[in-house]
Amino acid sequence: MLLTISTTHRPATDLGFLLHKHPDRVQEFSQSFGTATVFYPEASDERCTAALLLEVDPVRLARRSGKGKHGKGTPDFSLGQYVNDRSYAASSLFGVALADVFSTARSGRCVARPELADTAIPLELAIPALPCRGGVPIARRLFEPLGWTVAAEPVPLDAGFPEWGDSRYLDLTLTGTVRLADALSQLHVLLPVLDESKHYWQGPDEVDKLLRSGAGWLAEHPDRELVVRRYLGRRGRLVGVALERLAEVDDVLEPAGAETEPADVEEVRVPLNTRRHEAVLALLAEIRPRSVIDLGCGPGRLVERLLATEGIARVAGCDVSARSLQGAARRLHVDRMTERQQERLTLFQSALTYDDPRLAGYDVAVLMEVIEHVDPPRLDALERVVLGSARPGVLVVTTPNREYNVRYEGLRGMRHPDHRFEWDRAELRAWAERVGAAYGYTVELRGVGDDDPEVGTPTQMAILTRTSTDGASR
């Protein structure tokens, strides 16, 4: 099994830093079913290619096949020891090896090139033998919404006998400008989805694995239900749990012990995500700003509402994900805007932990459900960039209230697998007061959602207002 990862980013050899694998070395990594090898067929400033080669030991694989639940290690356990393509085609075995060998790269961490790890770069991924149930159309359905250009050719059953037709394998090449960590996570999930088979028994922990690897892209994928069903082997209970958790949990689950309305009364429940947007817009109606920037705008839901708000002359949205910005542009129909409408709007890619002059000059900046996705050691960088350099007149921060989590049936741990932390009310107050004092802002705290007398509201909001007049421009 072979995967090549190429880039023309300059210098292209920075790929070695991102993958944490030196271009001048051949490195081997033992797997329970074989050996994975990383090497570089080419490495220059103009173009660099890293190759991951997995050699499966059929004997070791056969010995593992009976170790699953009820002695069934694979879905095709009865023939799996005798007839299979696992040694040659990029299957779930390859996905497991990829996740292990490139674990640090998948996490998006790179001490030597931290800014590059957060940046979308030109990539080309090639897999010459990929099992794909559904052929080229399925490969396009799964990869194109993620920003990839898909080139896929079916592999013939036998080149000497063209009348036999094509096999279920594809020679797949993906090209696009994507963050490397996102590309690796997408492959880790979609390889077994395309194959529609796994080499191990799937338990409840598979849902957590899927949501961790799909963080930032799976929830917005137009075929997310297809991805979930195939990844989880169409196991109905696991599929149901995963689809529920993919939706933002506090927008889907009802609090435990909530009173039930009589059967003849239809209750219209407003999702918490909608209530957050309404709370931010209500605050802006009080402030009456002329310019607003949505920091971490995602697919542009808030930006869309801001553009429709009377009195706001300038709106911006930024995000670290190029794919999210593409989705925002589609949502806002940027290609059909008039010249005057386009002058009001700015969309750009930026990481909030690095100085960027484009973040400055706004009356209000909004961090809505963003801060909890930042690694705690990087919070000080975000504080410095947003409050120290960009210095909006008002910073609005919304974030989950950890105390309220006990009101959600079935929730264990944090509300989203990509959350790095969740604050209780005292912790948010302490953070807001600390950074407010450090950068010259006063602090006001509010709640969003139904107020529980014991645990407060599900979402909490901090409003930081700059006390000095320098730095911002209307």
TrEMBL record:
Pfam families: Hen1_L, Methyltransf_23. It catalyses: small RNA 3'-end nucleotide + S-adenosyl-L-methionine = small RNA 3'-end 2'-O-methylnucleotide + S-adenosyl-L-homocysteine + H(+). It comes from the Bacteria. SUPFAM superfamilies: S-adenosyl-L-methionine-dependent methyltransferases. Keywords: Magnesium, Metal-binding, Methyltransferase, RNA-binding, RNA-mediated gene silencing, S-adenosyl-L-methionine, Transferase. One of its GO terms (biological process) is regulatory ncRNA-mediated gene silencing. GO terms for molecular function: metal ion binding; RNA binding; small RNA 2'-O-methyltransferase activity. Its EC number is 2.1.1.386. InterPro entries: 3'-RNA_MeTfrase_Hen1_bac, Hen1, Hen1_N, Hen1_N_sf, SAM-dependent_MTases_sf. CDD domains: AdoMet_MTases. Its cofactor is Mg(2+). NCBIfam families: bacter_Hen1. Belongs to the methyltransferase superfamily. HEN1 family. PANTHER family: HEN1, SMALL RNA 2'-O-METHYLTRANSFERASE. This is Small RNA 2'-O-methyltransferase. It comes from Nocardioides simplex (Arthrobacter simplex). The lineage of its organism: Bacteria, Bacillati, Actinomycetota, Actinomycetes, Propionibacteriales.
